[in-house]
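Thread: "does anyone have the structure for this chain?"

Original post by V.I.:
We have the sequence but no experimental structure in hand. Need at least a predicted one for the grant figures.
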Amino acid sequence: MGMDLILICFAALACLSSGLFFSASFLQLKGRTETIGALQFGGALLLITAAGAMGLVSLGRPEMFLGALAHPGTGIFFELIGTLLLCFGAVCWLIAFWRDSSETILKFFAVFAAAGAVCLLFGVGRSFVMPWRETLNSWLVVPLFFIFALEAAAFAYAAAERAIDKEFQLGNPALIFSLVGALCLGGYLMQIMYSSSNDGKEAALSVLTGEPAVVFWCGVVVIGLMVPAVLACRKLGKIPFRNAAGLLAAVIGSASFQTILLVIGTASWQFFKR
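Reply from O.Q.:
Generated one for you, tokens below.
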């Protein structure tokens, strides 16, 4: 359970930090070189550093991360490269911001960091795409990690804009992300339920009605998808702490989804052990 908890925390921190990077990068691309953007870059850098440390611990022996470089098709490889790109891009952006560099340089490093976030999230999802395991033989798990990160990004961006302009209100982005996430989640469960083996059917039924059902329905569906969708409505724009609640919901959703995957499958880090 200890190692599973590390992997769950890693996924949650990866989604949260990527969401903050997306938000800060989008602010920069809009030409909003503000202190709030620097705070998001700095906070995301701290979170991704913590996530990277957890990722190394999950390997059992931290030096084994060098082995990931020899397996460029694996999720761990993309996680490692994404983390390195994120850290490099964020540090360079913060230095450029501190030195009052040009908008072009700031935008370049913002895009660089966002590309690292994409690589990291792909790696987190890719680690659970295993054709040799019926319950994890689906690429639909990959976009779900992007969904939770984008939900976090939508609320982080809204919080930043509200700090700049008190009249700003978040519209549809988080709602759209939640709807796409629901489609991907339903498609994933349908795919394994109607697979050729009984393992997939039993796993899907277990998620829906068995012991993991509480985590699935409460953590993934209600908190991870429905709550952000509701909070994205314009009519709720003046609710206190709405953006913080949306961020928290996205983090809980990503952690819950990671928990479900660990329950019905085997984490890819086990296949790197010697």
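V.I.: this helps a lot. Residues 2-272 form a domain with the Formate dehydrogenase/DMSO reductase fold fold (CATH 1.20.1630.10).
O.Q.: and The chain has one domain: 2-272.
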